[in-house]
Amino acid sequence: MTAPGLSAVSFDALYRAEHARVLGYFRRRAGRDAAPDLAQEAFARLLRSGALERAECPEAYLTRIACNLLIDRSRRKRSSPTAFYHFDETRDAVSCADQTWRIEAADLFHLYRRTVRAMPRKTRRVFLMRRVKHMSFKDIAAALGVSVATVDYHMVQALALCRAAVAVQW
């Protein structure tokens, strides 16, 4: 349906030329979800207004319509009532009991200790120097008389053993 006297060809040409620009405008200002609907509404308003034949620069008129749509949208959002709900403490989210967490933490700690004890001697030593004594790879390499690459190798091995033990347990 076109407005009286409006050429469908000129509207179609304007739509094809300006749709991407108007859509991009709304994407930047209103988001990807709202942009297609707002762009469609902008072109519908332009068509209903009958200004396509009267306007010297229909692109600028379309931009003004788009701007006004965003202003109207903002006003609607501001004036819409906000819903407030009574806070009911008895309906609080269920949380895991502290005792359960402590038991799981103790189990994990025992698993960790067993895994470290089962590591090869050199791997265990490198791992403990790094994790317990907080030594750098360079300091560990100097203390053990090995290269930094060797320290890195043993740390990777130790972490893989820990990861595997946890994966089997849980």
From TrEMBL:
Single GO term (MF): sigma factor activity
Residue ranges of domain RNA polymerase sigma factor 70 region 4 type in the record: 112-162
Domain RNA polymerase sigma-70 region: 14-78
GO biological process: DNA-templated transcription initiation
InterPro entries: RNA_pol_sigma-70-like (IPR039425), RNA_pol_sigma-70_dom (IPR014284), RNA_pol_sigma70_r2 (IPR007627), RNA_pol_sigma70_r4_t2 (IPR013249), RNA_pol_sigma_r2 (IPR013325), RNA_pol_sigma_r3/r4-like (IPR013324), WH-like_DNA-bd_sf (IPR036388)
Keywords, sorted A to Z: Sigma factor, Transcription, Transcription regulation
Entry-linked Gene3D superfamilies: 1.10.1740.10, Winged helix-like DNA-binding domain superfamily/Winged helix DNA-binding domain
Family: Belongs to the sigma-70 factor family. ECF subfamily.
Protein name per the record: RNA polymerase subunit sigma-24
Species assigned in the record: Sphingopyxis witflariensis
